[in-house]
Write a structure and sequence with these properties.
Number of strands: 0
Largest sheet: none
CATH topology: Na+/H+ antiporter like fold
Oligomer: single chain
Number of helices: 18
Strand content: under 5%
CATH architecture: Up-down Bundle
Helix content: over 70%
Length: 391
């Protein structure tokens, strides 16, 4: 047990306590954990330097974060007219991301394609609480925001893994390997469905589920780790396998809150109780704040990246014009432009592949921090005003 890990765990435990004691401090927990990591890390105080143990737990945290993001996506949201509108909105996002990438290439910024893809993502874990707090989760604005955020998350993870994987395999080969990975998912799905039809296995799982065995959670962790490893061995990023594991489990059990009420709670306990906070704190520890501050051009990139987020993710809500009042349309756009976890993952991948300069990565993460700090609060204000309008 290292001193650094204990400090990281202390931050993970202290952040929600601080937010609970100071309700006026309306900050997302993830943002506070990253800020604490920046202050404690080499960029400021230098009290903690990530060691092998911290980095290993952070990698597990990233995998579980992407798994939980996939688990939040209900594929039934893409049915009918809403699905077609979401596809149009996503198409606009992709075109905007290509335009941003072209501008970055013209400016000589490295990793332009990686940045463009990363901008497509939305932080579902932050969007859902805002919609719930405003009472808009079941309203049209909630359904549109969730569907749009889900589509962006899927597109970003797949493109990040397939189009930008750290391998020399040609694109056609990567698509073939992706097909093999999806085939493996199909085999797993068939096996799970077959097991559910076996009364003996079903009874065994039910008997072990709420004991110290916690068999459903153990099998889930095995699935996440196994698919992450499979994706990595096939030349993709491990996050693709973890994300697909979440999609698969949600597709097999679309309403886990009803069929297995304790299961989502246990997943949150494993993810948000331990692994995910370690990832966020470690992201702060490794952020090159000095490189960002030392270069005026990097500081100037922060508002530029914030504007790019609005262009790529907020502007495409025009696809839903006529279906929502203007205030709700703006709120949905702001929520879709709220992004941080995948930006952190993209910066980590870019650093490993040598695509992003440290200052550029720090600027991109800083823009994500701004989006998390500002956009949900502004959207919540707009939605709260809308809810006070008499019927």
């Amino acid at each position: 047990m290292s001193t650094g890990l204990v400090i990281v765990l202390a931050v993970a435990a202290g952040a929600p306590l601080l937010l609970g004691l100071l309700p006026w401090l309306r900050l997302p927990g993830a943002l506070l954990e990253i800020l604490a990591g920046i202050v404690l890390g080499p960029s400021v105080l230098g009290w903690v330097t990530p060691d092998a143990t911290i980095r290993a737990l952070a990698l597990l945290g990233l995998s579980f974060l992407l798994f939980l993001a996939g688990f939040e996506i209900d594929l039934r949201r893409f049915r009918g007219t809403l699905g077609r509108r979401v596809a149009l909105s996503l198409g606009i996002s992709v075109l905007a991301a290509v335009a941003v990438g072209a501008v970055l290439v013209a400016l000589g910024v490295g990793g332009a394609a990686l940045i463009g893809v990363a901008l497509l993502a939305t932080s579902l874990g932050l969007v859902v609480p805002v919609l719930a707090d405003s009472g808009a989760l079941e309203r049209p604005v909630g359904r549109i925001a969730l569907a749009g955020a889900s589509a962006g998350e899927v597109a970003a993870v797949v493109l990040l893994s397939v189009g930008l994987a750290g391998t020399d395999t040609p694109l056609a080969g990567r698509l073939l390997l992706l097909g093999l990975l999806l085939a493996a998912l199909g085999v797993i799905a068939v096996a799970v469905l077959g097991a559910e039809r076996s009364m003996r296995i079903t009874d065994l799982v039910a008997r072990l589920d709420d004991t110290s065995a916690q068999i459903r959670v153990r099998l889930t962790v095995l699935l996440v780790a196994g698919l992450a490893l499979a994706a990595q061995l096939l030349g993709f990023e491990a996050i693709l396998g973890a994300f697909l594991a979440g999609l698969l489990l949600r597709a097999l059990d679309p309403e886990p809150e009803r069929t297995h009420p304790l299961y989502p709670v246990k997943l949150d306990a494993v993810g948000f109780g331990l692994l995910v906070p370690v990832f966020f704190v470690t992201s702060g520890l490794t952020l090159d704040l000095r490189g960002l501050v030392a270069q005026p051009a990097a500081i100037a990139a922060v508002p530029a990246f914030v504007g790019a987020l609005l262009l790529v993710r907020a502007l495409p809500v025009v696809a839903f014009r006529g279906e929502l009042p203007r205030r709700e349309l703006v709120a949905a756009g702001l929520l879709q432009a709220t992004s941080l976890p995948l930006l952190l993952a993209a910066v980590e991948i870019g650093d490993e592949m040598g695509l992003l300069a440290p200052a550029t990565g720090a600027g991109l993460v800083a823009a994500g921090l701004v989006s998390v700090l500002v956009f949900p609060a502004a959207a919540l204000t707009l939605l709260a005003r809308r809810s006070r309008v008499p019927a």
